Amino acid sequence: MDEGGLLGGKFLFKKLPDGLLDKTRVRCTICKAEFKYHRSSSSLAYHLRAKHPTESTSTGPRQSTLQEYGACGRITKNVREKVTNSLVVWIAKNCRPVSIVEDDGLREVIRAASGDECYNLPSRGTIVSRLHTLYGDQRAQQSSKLVQVRNVALTGDHWTSVNNDNYLGVMAHFIDNDWTMQSFALTVSKTEERHYAEACADHFLNVANEWKIKDKVTTLGTDSARNMVAAARLLPFEHMPCMAHILQRTVTVSLNDSAFERALAKCRKIVGHFKHSPANAQELKAQQAAHGHQTEPLVQDVPTRWNSTLEMIKRIQRNKFGLTTILTQQNSKVTMLTDQELDRLQKLEELLEPCRYVTELLGGERYVSCSMVLPALCHLFRIMEPSDDDPVYVLRFKKIFTTDLAQRRDSSNLTWLKIATALDPRFKDLKCLSKDERREVWASVHDLVMSETDAHQPSAQTTEEPSPKKSKMSICLLGSPDSDKEEEEDAIDCCLNLYKAEPKIDIGECPLQWWLKREGAHARLAPIARKYLSTPATTVPCERLFSLSGHIIQKKRASLSSDNVNRIVCLSNWLSLGSVTVDGLKGFL
Question: Where is the HAT C-terminal dimerisation domain positioned along the sequence (predicted)?
């Protein structure tokens, strides 16, 4: 048979009486018509199209005309637009450089996937223009969320790129009307001025004014750098120092000149011995495999990298046998830790592990964290209580730790933290506070409810005609304004007693879900709870803006212009953290 089996079996050679095939004539299997065959199937294909159009689509391969190739091989305009917009979302969501559209490999991938060998990627100008459009659309959606809430908390942090450019990142945090915690980026803007307090304060005010939330901002969370603390004093917002920074600073102070320092210095030399030599690192991998351990590199501790000291200790402890074998065989100047030093590191690991847990617990942005600060610190103070079994160096570490942490705790925004703790149904018994402090907290909450009530009282000024003068007898019968105030005081006390009488929920339950179900029963307390519980305990969510995908993405960001850094990092945050729904992208895609 010819190519394609005489057009897919629709035609057969004519059979002669002696059983042989006449290859000069063919017969249609559908209508039994006979045709002369001269090694060309053009007439056969024409017959199928003319007499049997329903069968002609399944014919065998043939050479396409130029017009047919253009119609079948090229992607349509709508599909091309969808591909372009998908590229824009990918670049924004994954913080890719705009120049990636000049990548020949990406172009070949799309050509292979689409079947269009003539497809060309959109220009950088097109991508930048679409990024601006997408940013504008999504920014409007974020703004609409801020319009619907009364209170917004801010967190801010500075970051320096590998090009030595300074950026200020600011995030907004609030609890929406459905009692869901919301957090998203407001800006990642390049700053040219030195980071003096006045300049930092102006930057935060500009962001608040740009997003039209200046009158809604309740707290500003920053690290404890002196310029940031001074800037917060210049602003009309409550300052909330980052509790993660406070805790890690306490750990650093406690380790300085401690009995652990010599063992830690030895650890750093061991890590450097294997980090700076590929051959040594390969030997370590072989030892890990021989001992049935997971293959993992050693970690060097860095003062600015939280919990890195703990992770360094853990990995050396897990690989101590392999490390001992390698260092002994190499007869290296770097010596392995002694048993006594390993014991000390084990005790230090037990001291630092609760600090790691608290740091990670308070660093969340999708759940309430501010109300957990005081209970978490109380937990640390209990762990750091002296024990009769503690050696002298552990007692010294605990004393320095508790003293330093207590000082930093007292210098934080204790009033805000206490009220937030009281309004969290998990911790409303306030067992982390003394009895005197508890009374003070509930008195503060009482005053807040009174202020909230006064703020919603109708104005005394009215345009109505003055009422006729009352007689002295009617004034006496109606009572004095003081009696109304006493009634209001009693109503607020009843409101607080009703809330305190509610059973405490388990620590694993969500306080926002509790408030969602009981907002009606505690209508006076609900707006105050929404305000205080929305403040994050740390600036960790803001710092994640600068490490969306680790150090590699940080390098890619450095090659972008400052305006595109702002748009792409904000878009990446909005698209990745769930602030933008799929419905929000339908108009763009």
Answer: 496-575
Q: Mind giving me the DSSP string for 341-408?
A: HHHHHHHHHHHHHHHHHHHHHHT-SSS--GGGHHHHHHHHHHHTS--TT--HHHHHHHHHHHHHHHHH
∠ CA(510), CA(223), CA(424), 5° rounding?
A: 20
Q: Are strands 166-175 and 181-191 parallel, antiparallel or unpaired?
A: antiparallel
Answer yes or no: are the C-beta atoms of 574 and 138 closer than 8 Å. yes
Structure tokens at 66: 């130029």
- Counts for the chain of helices (H) and strands (E), in that order: 27, 8
Provide the pLDDT confidence category of residue 555 given band limits of 50, 70 and 90: very low
| Dist. CA 51–CA 148, nearest whole Å | 68
Q: Using CA atoms, how far apart are residues 527 and 514, in angstroms rounded to an integer?
A: 14
Per the DSSP assignment, residues forming a β-bridge with 158 are 168
Do 219 and 237 meet the contact criterion of CB atoms below 8 Å apart? yes
**186-226 pLDDT per residue, tens:** 998 888 888 899 999 999 999 999 999 999 999 999 998 89
Position 526: which residue type? A
Q: Average pLDDT, whole number, for the chain?
A: 86
Q: What does residue 224 show for φ and ψ, rounded to 5 degrees?
A: -95, 20
Q: Dihedral angle at the C-alpha atoms of 168, 172, 173, 178, nearest 10 degrees?
A: -160
In angstroms, the CA 117 to CA 125 distance is: 23
Location of structure tokens 């590929």: 278
Listed residue (421, 441, 424) closest to 378, CA to CA: 421
- Phi, psi torsion values for 172, nearest 5 degrees: -105, 145
Q: Comparing C-alpha atoms, which of 246, 250, 247 is closest to residue 403?
A: 250
DSSP state of 101: G
- pTM of structure: 0.79
Q: How many CB atoms lie within 10 A of CB 28?
A: 20
Token readout for 534 is: 């929305």
**Cα-atom radius of gyration of the chain, to the nearest Å?**
36
Unique residue bearing structure tokens 């920014």: 139
CA nearest neighbour of 571 among 82, 80, 128: 128
Q: Is 580 left (phi over 0), alpha (psi -120 to 50) or beta?
A: beta
What pLDDT is stored for residue 589 in this prediction?
41
Task: Label the pairing between strands 152-160 and 217-222.
Answer: parallel
Cα-Cα end-to-end distance for the chain: 49
Q: How far is the C-alpha of 255 from the C-alpha of 313, rounded, in Å? A: 14
Beta strands in 403-448 (DSSP E): none
Taking the C-alpha atoms of residue 336 and residue 107, their distance in angstroms, rounded to an integer, is 53
* Measured distance CA(572)–CA(570) in Å, rounded: 5
Residue entry with tokens 């570490």: 397
Residue 346 to residue 192: CA distance in whole angstroms: 46
Q: Measured between alpha carbons, how far is 467 from 245 in angstroms, rounded to an integer?
A: 61
How far is the C-alpha of 171 from the C-alpha of 183, rounded, in Å? 7
Q: Which two tokens stand for residue 329?
A: 């065989």
- Which amino acid is present at 106? L
Residue 470 to residue 481: CA distance in whole angstroms = 15
